[in-house]
Structures are given as structure tokens and as C-alpha cells.
Amino acid sequence: xxxxxxxxxxxxxxxxxxxxxxxxxxxxxxxxxxxxxxxxxxxxxxxxxxxxxxxxxxxxxxxxxxxxxxxxxxxxxxxxxxxxxxxxxxxxxxxxxxxxxxxxxxxxxxxxxxxxxxxxxxxxxxxxxxxxxxxxxxxxxxxxxxxxxxxxxxxxxxxxxxxxxxxxxxxxxxxxxxxxxxxxxxxxxxxxxxxxxxxxxxxxxxxxxxxxxxxxxxxxxxxxxxxxxxxxxxxxxxxxxxxxxxxxxxxxxxxxxxxxxxxxxxxxxxxxxxxxxxxxxxxxxxxxxxxxxxxxxxxxxxxxxxxxxxxxxxxxxxxxxxxxxx
Length: 326
Prior knowledge:
single chain, alpha/beta, Leucine-rich repeat, LRR (right-handed beta-alpha superhelix), 2 domains, two-stranded parallel sheet, 23% helix
């Protein structure tokens, strides 16, 4: 088993030979970049003497878990893609970490990043998952990254739902290609929260085959510059936004018309009480109208009156109109 230790660094010509004027302990204190990619490393030993380490390259190895990095409080870049990592452990002391590369591992749940408040890039593409598994996110981790994360790559991880990612309001670059995203309406709602989004890649998802897929996302993501590798023309975006606004306005107008319908001034009835007082539709003064007392109440026969002729019929049949002084 190959283990990354101080002794392994001492044997590396790529490092110590560059600063021959320094003693080895002093050299380790000045070391900021450590390159040990593709060395068949399976474990990380004690590197605490490298207290000023800022960039660590450990990609393309056989590392199964992250350990012994608690000393690296100045670390800003960690490259550990294409290893055998299954869990995200022992990262709480890396509070200055800005970029974390973990693609091509065996991670199922993204967790344990609650202390990484300065993390701007998180790369998790191409996890080697068991059949039926998909990449999941701990809500606590997402919430802790909401104000800092700008770049997220989760391509090819069997993901069919990204609603939990809505809290990442500072995202500028988002890649979720070759997953199983299919619900267009959900995506429109989620992307409407990402006001800073500039580049997005959803190619290879079932949703890409939906009608007007590209047009609909362009109108929702108003800051988007590149979608699925293709630049967005600003004139095209403005046309689509105006078209959508016009379509929605027309739809609202039709719904309102259907709800209100044609107005009928008075309720229809086939029974007219001849002894009733003046109809509300007629206005008369006391001087011009004689007091009329019906001798008997007559019930008119039932009539079939069209709506359009209702007012004229009522005017003719009202007893008040026949008792007005000349």
C-alpha cells in the first residue's frame, strides 16, 4: 500500500530538489503546492509539517477516505477526483477551502460540508454508483453553502429531482448533464430562484426533448448566457420574453371573460304581481303619479320572454305606466 507521508515527499525529486538551500523541515514549512496525482496512493499519512499548504493534488489515485488533513487550515484547492472515496469526512477544519474536486468517486450522499463557508466550487460528476442509486444531498450542507457556492457540477449521477438545490441562490455555473431530469414545470420553478445563473448544461436529460424546452428556460433564466453549450442571443431572449408576456395576458383575459359571462340586469321570472309597486327601473315624481290602489291582485299568465325583450315587455305590462297624468 502506498501512503502519502513526509518520507514520500522527501523522496520526490519534483519537490525537495527545487529548494536545496533549505533544510527539509524548513522546506516543508514553505511548501504551498503538493503534487501527488497518479501515484497509486491509498491513504494519507501525517503531513502536519506542511502547515502552509494551500493546493493539494491527489487525483487519479486509490484513496478510500479523506483523513489527516485537519492541519491544513490554509488549504484553498483540493483535487481528489477519480479515487475510491465513499464518504465526505474530516473536512471541517478546511474553512478556507474554495474549490473541491471529487468527481469520479463512489459518493452517494453529499454531507459534512457545513463548515466550508467559503466554498465556491463543488465538482461531483460521474460518481460510480451501484445500480438504482442516485446522488443525494444533505439539506444542512446545502443550506450552509447557499451564500457561497457559485459552481456546481453533478453530471451523470442518476439524478431525477433537483428541488433541494433551490437554496443555492448564488449559483453562476450549473452542470447536470446526463441525468434523469424530466419535469419541465419543476425546473422552471427552480431556475427562477437562481438570479445569478450564467451558464447551464442539462444536455442528455429527458427534459431536453420536451416541446419548447430551450425557449422556456431562456425566458425563466433571464441572466443565462450559455445553455447546453450554445450561447443565447439577447434579441432572441427579449423576443421570447415579450411573446410569453403577451400569451399570459391573453390567457388571463380569456379566463376573466369566462368567469364573468354576459350581464343580465334583472332576474327572469314568468310571474308578475300586478299589485306590486313601481319597478326599480322606472323613476316617477309624486306630482305626476296618481296614487293607485289595485282593486284586486291579478296573476298574469306564464310567458316565454326572450332576454333581449325583457325590459320593453316590463315597461308595457307595468300598471304604473297607465296611471300617469297627461
